[in-house]
Amino acid sequence: MPVTIAALPYDILYKIFEHAAFMNDFYAHKWKKRLELLAVCSGWRKIALDIVYRHSGVTYGDSEWPFAEVTENTQADEPKFEELETNVDLIGQLGLSHLVKRLDLTIYHFTNPLIVDHMQLLLPNVISLISWTNSNNSLVRKIVGELADRYSEQITHINTNHQLQTWSPREFSKLRYLKINLEHMAACQYSTVLPSTLVSLFLRNIQPSNEWGIFGNDKQYLEFANLKTLDIRYSFLESNEFLETRLGAPKRTLYFPQLENLLLFGNSIDSPVLRHSIFPKKIKYLEIKSYKNVVDTASKVNLPKAEALSMSLNYNQYNKHINILSAINKLAELADNVLATDLNITEPISINSFGNTICTFITNLRVSSLVDDKIAIKLLQACPNAVKLCLYQVKVEGSEDTTKYTIDEHASAIDPIHPSLENATIQFVHTADNNSNAIEFAKYLLIRLSVLNTAIFSGIPTKPLREFRDMYSTAHPHLQAL
Can you tell which superkingdom this protein's organism belongs to (predicted)? Predict the structure, then answer.
């Protein structure tokens, strides 16, 4: 007997309605469509009522609002900053303000500060505040910060793209999730957060001065007793020595006894924060993404061991003095399992740049600097577990040995040069004297990359490659998929 949706258990229907009513970003016209869930029957209305009305929001000065009034003098691309859309008043008129738990603010231009009092009176039970504003407007930041402060004794979730300035600093005593931009925090008043209540912490644009002042300026020892996830992104480029000697960055001792996930992103992860932090001996997940000065920091920074590690690193002018493959191998020693490693090479390299080092942890390899065919082969051999390769400037030099990439039609088997590469994108540098050699090199790669399923070669004629594929696809079936 088929099961109808009406026969589903309450908890399953509840989850379905939660999914149907979810909005990543608040727009009143989108929210109103969720009201249709309440109009089907009394049973659905009873289940979906608190789901639909738990989400409220204000959008002011958003040029994407589709129903803004357009006059004869309005330019097609002119932002319509006067528009204000919200469901706050409607929910209040229905007497359902007590159901609102999440408030979204999207404010691009200054609005009346009385909105703070208005919101708090109409929406007394808000515990989650999502804010996307013009972060360059200090008045807007203060309005959002002041509103957050009004809920300081009850709010558990704050997600904002800016710092929370305020006129009357308070303390968030129940905050569990915090995502905040700390840029210019030292120059403004802000409320403090109890580190002991946080479970997830996402810090953006951490500055060298007063990095952790939001958790208390007078504290040299901060214990994040219940924190499970720490995601920090640095914006400063200078070295750790510069931070501590010239700027006098505070040497806070940070204690993370329950941490499970640590994510680091920035130009450099060599920071006083990590030099003066106490982590568990092993966490569940460590992620490192950086563009400068990162590959040689494993021995300097107090990074914890991890069950799983993911890396996205660059080889550029800041670390050209090291063997990056050896450095990645050293970072990999931090983890029981390396999930993925992306390496982006922007610095010119030579055939001897990596010596004979083999790095089995690289899964995605991208090279934007000029390389020749010999270096391309060297990289493939040095990264045997790579599944994706992008080479944006490949020059196949002319050679007296014009047959080195010629396919032996009589060979019963051709040895592969890489066991796992599935996706290859190669841009050949075209010159009059190397075009034929580049074509032969492309054929060489096609037939010897035995698990390749996607190949994008540009800068050379494609007709010879198609003819080559058709000729050899019977003996080499992997070519049929290309």
Answer: Eukaryota
pLDDT-derived band at 225, boundaries 50, 70, 90: very high
Collapsed DSSP state (helix, strand, coil) of residue 180: strand
Distances 209 to 160, 199, 236, 242, 284 between C-alpha atoms, Å: 21, 24, 10, 11, 30
Question: Alpha helix (H) ranges present in 22-68?
Answer: 28-33, 42-52
Contact between 430 and 460 under an 8 Å Cβ cutoff? The reply is: yes
Strands (E), 209-318: 221-223, 229-234, 253-255, 261-266, 277-278, 282-290, 305-315
User: What value does the mean pLDDT take over residues 171-189?
Assistant: 80
Q: Of 211-215, 390-394, 405-409, which has the strongest mean pLDDT?
A: 390-394
Residue 379 lies in a domain: yes
Report the pLDDT value the prediction gives residue 296, as an integer from 0 to 100.
55
Distance between CA atoms of residues 471 and 440, nearest Å: 14
| Confidence at residue 387, expressed as pLDDT on a 0 to 100 scale | 94
Residue 95, number of CB atoms within 10 A of its CB: 8
The three-class DSSP label of residue 273 is helix
Nearest to 270, CA basis, from 248, 244, 246: 244
Name which residue leads in pLDDT, 106 or 119: 106
User: Which pTM was predicted?
Assistant: 0.82
Give me the helices (H) in 228-369, please: 240-245, 272-275, 324-332
Range 111-128 average pLDDT:
74
Residue 241, in any domain of the structure:
no
For the segment 160-175, the average pLDDT, to the nearest whole number, is 82
What 3-state DSSP class applies to 307? Answer: strand
- Provide mean pLDDT across the span 432-437: 71
Q: Which residues contact 194 (CB under 8 A, 6 or more apart)?
A: 171, 172, 173, 175, 215
Q: Calculate what percentage of the chain has a pLDDT beyond 90.
A: 23
Quote the domain boundaries for residue 479.
363-482
Greatest alpha-carbon pair distance for the chain in Å reads 86
Nearest CA-CA partner of 330 in 351, 317, 313: 313
CA distance 380 to 386: 8
Instruction: Give the number of domains in the chain.
Output: 1
Whether the Cβ atoms of residue 80 and residue 34 lie closer than 8 Å to each other = no
340: which 2 tokens?
Answer: 């993925």
Q: Three-class SS of residue 305?
A: strand
pLDDT for the residue numbered 123: 85
Residue 443 counted as domain residue: yes
Which residue(s) pair with 310 in the sheet?
287, 340
Tell me if 429 is assigned to some domain.
yes
Tens digit of each residue's pLDDT (9 = 90 or more) over 335-350: 999 998 999 988 888 8
Contacts of 109 (CB under 8 A, 6+ apart): 60, 61, 81, 134, 137, 140
